[in-house]
Amino acid sequence: MAEHACPHREKSRLTARERRLAHRRRMQDVAKLRCPWCGERFETLVDASGGGADYVEDCPVCCRPIEMHLAVDHDGIRLDAGRED
To answer: Which of 11-15, 44-48, 67-71 shows the lowest mean pLDDT across its residues?
Structure first.
C-alpha cells in the first residue's frame, strides 16, 4: 500500500533556517517611548534576540542621541531611554 502524502503536513515542516527566522521575528517588537530631550513620542524597533543591550539611537524628531538600555528577562522586554547630561 502506497503512503499518502498529506500536503498540509509538508507545509508545516520548517527548515532550521526558517525556525531561526521565525524565532527572530517573535523577538522583535515595536517600543513606544518619549525623547528625553524634546519630549516627542516616537516608535522604535527593538530586537531582543541577542538579549539585553545598551546602545545609542538618535531621536527621529530632534536628532539628539538617546541612550537606550534594553533588558530582557523571564517577564519580557523593557526599554529605558535616557540622556547623558
So the answer is: 11-15
Q: What is the pLDDT of residues 29-57, one digit of tens each?
A: 888 999 999 999 999 988 888 889 999 99
Distance of CA 67 to the CA centre of its chain: 17
- Measured from the Cβ of residue 1, the count of other Cβ atoms closer than 10 Å reads 3
Question: Where would I find the beta strands (DSSP E) of the chain?
Answer: 28-34, 41-47, 53-58, 65-73, 76-82
Question: Are 12 and 26 a contacting pair, CB within 8 Å?
Answer: no
pTM value > 0.90: no
Which residues, at least 6 apart from 71, have a Cβ–Cβ distance to it below 8 Å?
Answer: 52, 77, 78, 79, 80
